[in-house]
Every structure is written in structure tokens, then in C-alpha cells.
Design goal:
This protein has 378 residues and is mainly α. It has a domain at 184-326: Alpha Horseshoe (Serine Threonine Protein Phosphatase 5, Tetratricopeptide repeat), CATH 1.25.40.280. 54% of the residues lie in helices and 2% in strands. It has ten helices and two strands; from the N terminus they run ααββαααααααα. The protein has helices at 6-26, 33-47, 86-109, 116-140, 156-180, 185-205, 212-230, 234-259, 274-298, 334-338, and strands at 69-72, 80-83. The protein has a two-stranded antiparallel ribbon. A hairpin with a 7-residue loop joins strand 1 (69-72) and strand 2 (80-83). Helix 1 runs antiparallel to helix 2 and helix 7 (212-230) runs antiparallel to helix 8 (234-259). Mean pLDDT is 84; it is low at 348-370. Residues 69-378 form the BRO1 domain. It comes from Suricata suricatta. Belongs to the BROX family. Residues 342-371 have a biased composition (Basic and acidic residues).
Length: 378
């Protein structure tokens, strides 16, 4: 064993075990954010030695292209993507960490009688996921020598959709909290309006004609109508509620179509979501109240045009939690770097995926929430 670099062997062993541990946690229902962060930081700090120069300069590591990595994509079945590039591994593993946070949020949100602390954890997890997706898109996707093909998980357009979707779903938590605490209808209307805009931003990126923008537009008009009624503008309030009713009816149609759509993902039925069901009753009841009040007290003319929503929420807007990968592990030294034999790197043609090399995706646990959370990302 004379001349063996034991630090080198230890580093390789730690990389294998930390990677295996992280993959294991992706499907471990007992995993929590602290466990996930510790495991992710452990692996990423070791992987950084394959990407960044040890001298702190902007030069890349000579090991960046020494290893071939393969990952299956969400919508591509068993046909893997492969790149001989450690940055590809960094982004792919980071993508899965972000996806884990969305699934963790979905599991919590699906519990019966969710507590205030759990609601905060859902909110925080979605913002964390948004921050990771955003960091990958802006700081690491541009570094790939081979950009992701259309429809692959690492396509910049899809990552942007994930960012916007996570922000929108986190804002749903904010709205639910505002409704629960009976905050001013004007604030709720503004938050709903901003959330509808979030979902509308995601639609051109991944056109799915989801009912969510319509649903939150209807919610915005509903609560705006309450604000108008409180200001003795009953006629305008009725017109606003009529607009809410139109949006809700359109959303109902899309909900039915979406629930019957077949695809590789799990079946989500937005029409069964508690928020959606409550909104329908709220719109109907509030409109009937406004019409009664107008018939007894106000006798105001109902405008032909719906009010223009120019709402801006000053509170409760969601921003992604800033994310950075950890620095290179102290286990990396010039001696361990020198121990790598670059003459044995794989051939370039090994990056081309073959049918017989299909990589089976990590099996996800069969976790069924106790109720429909409405979470689309997870």
C-alpha cells in the first residue's frame, strides 16, 4: 500500500456515501428540511472540487469533464439525459433537492387540521424551492456545454415556470392565512390579483390552460366587491361580483377538463380543492347579499363594464429565498487533486445515451395526502 493517498480514497468514499445518502432522503418520508440541507451541503461541497479551482480563481477544475453523469427526466420516461460534465450533475441534483421541498410542502399541506407552524413550513419550503430553481437557472444553466433539449427538466423555460409556480403556491398560503384571520377584503383582493398574475406568467412558459389564473381572478373580483360594498358602492360591487361569477364558471369548466386529462403525472382534480369549493359559495353568497342590499337600501345602477382591477399588495408578496451552493469541502487539497489520473477519463462517445443504458428513475414513495392540496409543482 506504499504510496497510496489515503485522503484521496477517503474523499472518494465520502462522495459515494454522501450522494447515496442524498438520493435515499429524496424518498424518505421521515426526512425534514434540516436533514435535507445537511445531506445536500455535504454532497455539494465535495462535488465542488470537480467544478471549481482550489486556488479560488475563476478557472474551472481540471476534473470537470472526467466523469459521465446520467439522469432521467420527468416527462421522458426511461430515456436518460447524459453529459460528461460535473456541472450537469450539480444542476440535476440541485433540481431534485428543490423538487423535494415542493413535495415536502405538499405533504404538509395535505394533512388534516394543519397547524400554524406547519403552514409557515409549507410557505418557507415553497420559497426555498423557488430560490433553488432561480439560482440554477441564472447561475448554472448557462454554464452547460450542452444546453437541455426542449421538454427536459433543465430547460431554462421550465425552470422559470417552476420558480413562478412555487411563488404562486406560496402566495396561496398567504391568502389562506389572510382569509382565516379576516384581514381587510382589499388586502385579500390585492393578494389574489397578484397571485393570478403569477400563474398567468407561468402559462406562456408551459401552456396548460390551468384554471388557477381564472380562479384567483375570480377571488380578486369577489373580495374587491366586498370592499366596494363597504364603501357604499353597491352597484359597482354587484358588477364586480358578477365578474367573479363569470371567472369562477370558466374555471369550473377548465377544472373538469384538467381533471380528465391523462398524462405521466398524478391526477390532480382542482375542482375538489377546498379553496375552490369555498370560493364558489363565497361568490354566490356575497353577490346575493349585494343584490338584497341594493334592493332595500342603495338602489344604485349596476355598471355595464366590470371595474378595472388596479390592485397592488403592499404586504404578503412572496420572493424566492436566496440560495447558494456551499463552498468546496476542506477535504480537497492539491494532493488529493493530483491523485486523480486524467489519462483514464471516459471517451467522448460515452455521453450518448443508448436504449440499453436506460436509467431507472428514483422510485418516489406512494404518499397520498389526506386531502387535495392543490399543489401543482409537487
Amino acid at each position: 500500500m506504499l504510496g497510496v493517498n489515503f485522503n484521496f480514497l477517503s474523499l472518494l468514499s465520502d462522495m459515494r456515501s454522501s450522494r447515496a445518502r442524498l438520493l435515499e432522503l429524496f424518498t424518505d418520508v421521515s426526512c425534514n428540511p434540516e436533514m435535507m440541507k445537511n445531506a445536500a451541503d455535504s454532497y455539494f461541497s465535495l462535488l465542488q472540487g470537480f467544478i471549481s479551482s482550489l486556488d479560488g480563481s475563476s478557472q474551472e477544475s481540471k476534473l470537470r469533464y472526467i466523469q459521465n453523469f446520467k439522469w432521467t427526466d420527468t416527462l421522458q420516461g426511461q430515456v436518460p439525459s447524459a453529459q460528461q460534465d460535473a456541472v450537469f450533475e450539480l444542476i440535476s441534483m440541485g433540481f431534485n433537492v428543490a423538487l423535494w421541498y415542493t413535495k415536502y410542502a405538499s405533504r404538509l399541506a395535505g394533512k388534516e387540521n394543519i397547524t400554524e407552524d406547519e403552514a409557515k413550513e409549507v410557505h418557507r419550503s415553497l420559497k426555498t424551492a423557488a430560490g433553488i430553481f432561480k439560482h440554477l437557472k441564472e447561475s448554472h444553466i448557462p454554464k452547460l456545454i450542452t444546453p437541455a433539449e426542449k421538454g427536459r427538466d433543465l430547460e431554462a423555460r421550465l425552470l422559470e415556470a417552476y420558480v413562478v409556480q412555487c411563488q404562486a403556491e406560496a402566495q396561496e398560503v398567504t391568502i389562506a392565512r389572510a382569509i382565516e384571520l379576516k384581514h381587510a377584503p382589499g388586502l385579500i383582493a390585492a393578494l389574489a390579483y397578484e397571485t393570478a398574475n403569477f400563474y398567468q406568467k407561468a402559462d406562456p412558459l408551459v401552456p396548460l390552460s390551468l384554471p388557477l389564473p381564472l380562479c384567483f381572478s375570480g377571488s380578486a373580483y369577489c373580495y374587491h366587491g366586498q370592499t366596494l360594498l363597504a364603501s357604499d358602492k353597491c352597484g359597482e360591487a354587484i358588477r364586480s361580483l358578477q365578474e367573479a361569477e363569470k371567472f369562477y364558471a370558466k374555471a369550473e369548466v377548465l377544472c373538469k377538463e384538467y381533471g380528465e386529462t391523462k398524462g405521466p403525472g398524478p391526477t390532480v382534480r382542482p375542482s375538489g380543492h377546498l379553496f375552490f369549493r369555498k370560493l364558489g359559495s363565497l361568490v354566490t353568497n356575497t353577490l346575493e347579499k349585494c343584490q338584497r342590499e341594493n334592493g332595500f337600501i342603495y338602489f344604485q345602477k349596476i355598471p355595464t363594464e366590470a371595474p378595472q382591477l388596479e390592485l397592488k399588495a403592499n404586504y404578503g408578496l412572496v420572493e424566492p429565498v436566496p440560495f447558494e451552493f456551499p463552498p468546496t469541502s476542506a477535504q480537497w487539497t492539491p494532493e488529493t487533486l493530483a491523485a486523480f489520473d486524467l489519462t483514464k477519463r471516459p471517451k467522448d462517445d460515452s455521453t450518448k445515451p443508448k436504449a440499453e443504458d436506460a436509467v431507472k428513475p428514483v422510485r418516489e414513495p406512494d404518499i397520498k395526502p389526506q386531502k387535495d392540496t392543490g399543489c401543482s409543482v409537487a
